[in-house]
Amino acid sequence: MNNNRGILYFQSNWCQPCKTLGSIIESLEGSGVKVKKVNIDYDTMLTQQYNIKSTPTLILTDLQGNELGRKVGMQSKQQIIDWYNG
Q: What's the domain range around 31?
């Protein structure tokens, strides 16, 4: 578990893959992975800051918000955990 990282999960209500990934993201809550859900339709500042072009997008950040990595599209729960802890 890495306490110096977090994931920004960029999604939208109209994105079908986001709905599938959303249930995986919710299942991560007990695994120590810190995730902040960002709706691209409402949080345009963060969406622009991280230059989000498609959803779902996961951005791995440090505590200062610096991007450490990016995943676009569907990911399995284990892929996200491994990436987060990597």
A: 5-85
Phi-psi category of 85—alpha, beta or left, where left has phi over 0 and alpha has psi -120 to 50? alpha
Please, is 43 exposed, middle or buried when counting C-beta atoms within 10 Å of its C-beta (0-12, 13-18, 19+)?
middle
- 35 strand-pairing partners: 7
pTM over 0.85: yes
DSSP state of 35: E
Count of structural domains within the chain: 1
Calpha distance 72→70 (Å, rounded): 7
Q: Which of 63, 47, 81, 79 is nearest to 6 (CA)?
A: 63
**Cβ atoms 80, 24 nearer than 8 A:** yes
CATH assignment of the domain containing 59 = 3.40.30.10
Consecutive sets of 10 residues in the chain, 86 residues long: mean pLDDT of each? 85 94 89 92 96 97 95 95 91
